[in-house]
Design goal:
Elements lengths: L6 E4 L5 E4 L6 E4 H9 L4 E6 L9 H4 L8 E5 L5 H5 L5 E6 L10 H10 L2 E5 L6 H14 L6 H18 L6 E7 L4 E5 L5 H8 L3 E2 L10 E5 H5 L5 E5 L7 H6 L3 H9 L1 E5 L7 H19 L1
Parallel strand pairs: 3-4, 3-6, 4-5, 6-7, 8-10, 8-12, 12-13
Antiparallel strand pairs: 1-2, 8-9, 9-11
Helix pairs in contact: 6-11
Length: 294
């Protein structure tokens, strides 16, 4: 039998997770789990955030087979017993710049790390898409995933195509938002989201919401959102955003104007951090920008 070698990985907190053998039973925050799945790493269980409910959010799940991957709860319902119940030998989580495990109660995360190696990757604004992909790919390779240069080439090709689509005298305006009921919308600040920054770097004309309140979002009425006059709307499809069908049925005049005048695309601010997912997203936006530019 081949001798097993030690496994270790230094995360974005500077913490070293280590085991005497490569982990084989991974649980993860759902976005991280979907990312590892894209790399071919089997994930045994996932947990959600305080924004999620008693069932996994399909938007965050990517291509995870939710019928066979155990859902361990979300936020405060993802307690220590639930997380340890399937006997994980590695936990993969994300952070938004503070080093704190996103989605779990801090005490739960603390006691979890006392019993199981915990790796935290930072998905916050200082990082661009390529850097984020590289970190997750590094972790996936440490867990046994092969290199996939073809997927990275497809992501780069999609970005190149987006640049070409946006390189016109008057690029179509794009607005990213998260619906907050029939009266309000949260308009995304492009600088706050790595995927939106990638669009801006590719020449896409993303609307910058007015006002200084809110680091990531500016909350406006639907009428104010319509006044941004986008040709393309990126609409949050996570479970905490109001679904388009509910808005269609409500008296949200500004929303109806957006639906009439703009192409509305699904947008997942917590999409898998993989070349496959990024290529799909960039291609979808390139298609819409090309169509809007005429």
């Amino acid at each position: 039998m081949a001798q097993q070698t030690a496994w270790q990985f230094s995360d974005d907190r500077g913490q070293l997770a280590a085991r005497s053998a490569r982990p084989s039973k991974v649980i993860a925050y759902i976005q991280a789990g979907a990312t590892l799945w894209d790399h071919g790493i089997h994930v045994h269980g996932v947990f959600g955030s305080y924004h999620d409910g008693p069932a996994p959010d399909p938007a965050k799940a990517g291509e995870l087979p939710l019928d066979s991957v155990e859902y361990l709860g979300a936020g405060g319902t993802a307690d220590l017993d639930a997380l340890l119940g399937c006997g994980p030998d590695l936990v993969v989580a994300v952070s938004y710049g503070s080093g704190q495990v996103y989605g779990l109660d801090p005490e739960t995360a603390k006691h979890l790390e006392e019993q199981v190696p915990l790796t935290v990757l930072d998905v916050s604004r200082p990082h661009d898409l390529a850097a984020l992909r590289a970190r997750f790919a590094e972790l996936a390779r440490s867990l046994g995933a092969p290199d996939d240069p073809a997927a990275e080439r497809r992501a780069q090709a999609a970005l190149d195509r987006l640049r070409t689509a946006a390189d016109v005298p008057s690029p179509p305006r794009v607005t990213a938002l998260s619906a907050a009921g029939p009266d309000r919308a949260h308009i995304a600040r492009p600088a706050a989201w790595p995927d939106l920054r990638a669009l801006t770097a590719g020449g896409v004309r993303l609307a910058e919401p007015a006002g200084s309140a809110g680091a990531n979002w500016s909350t406006v009425t639907w009428a104010e959102a319509a006044e941004l006059r986008p040709a393309v709307v990126l609409a949050d499809v996570r479970c905490n955003a109001t679904p388009p069908g509910e808005l269609d049925a409500a008296a949200a005049d500004g929303w109806h104007r957006l639906r009439r005048d703009a192409v509305v695309l699904p947008w997942n601010p917590e999409a898998p951090v993989s070349a496959r997912a990024h290529a799909r997203f960039l291609t979808r936006v390139a298609d819409a920008v090309e169509a809007a530019a005429g």
